[in-house]
Amino acid sequence: MEGWTGAKLAQLLQEAALVAVRRGQGSILQSDVDDAVDCLTVGPKRVGIELGHQGQCRRATTEVGTAMTSYLLKRYEDAKVESCNASQSFLVAKF
After folding, report:
1. If both were cysteines, with which of 10, 15, 22, 77 could 36 make a disulfide (CB 3.0 to 4.6 Å apart)?
2. Name one Pfam family in it (predicted).
């Protein structure tokens, strides 16, 4: 966990505790911490969700849009997101 802040380590232990509770355990095991690291760095496991090619393309497009929006908004300190409409897939930001 090189480079992790105290807050990130606290988040890691909270996530490991949630993993342990979901498994019905009374304490946190190393495997819970390992799964929590994966969840925080890669994202949660998506069990039972099988995306076809079209679903994968949609997800990839959404991820690219999110990354580009995040990059562009970081360049402007006073940027405010005015509206985000998921059904029409657009974002309005004022700079």
Report:
1. 15
2. AAA_lid_3
Task: Catalytic residue, from 2, 15, 63, 82: name it.
Answer: 63
Q: Residue 21: what pLDDT?
A: 93
Report pLDDT digits (tens) over 6-58: 898 999 999 999 999 999 999 999 999 999 998 888 877 666 667 788 888 88
Q: What distance lies between CA 51 and its chain's CA centroid? A: 18
**Is 13 a member of any domain?**
yes
Annotation says 63 is catalytic? yes
Task: Please tell me the distance from the alpha carbon of residue 84 to that of residue 93, in angstroms, as a whole number.
Answer: 9
Q: Is residue 1 part of a domain?
A: no
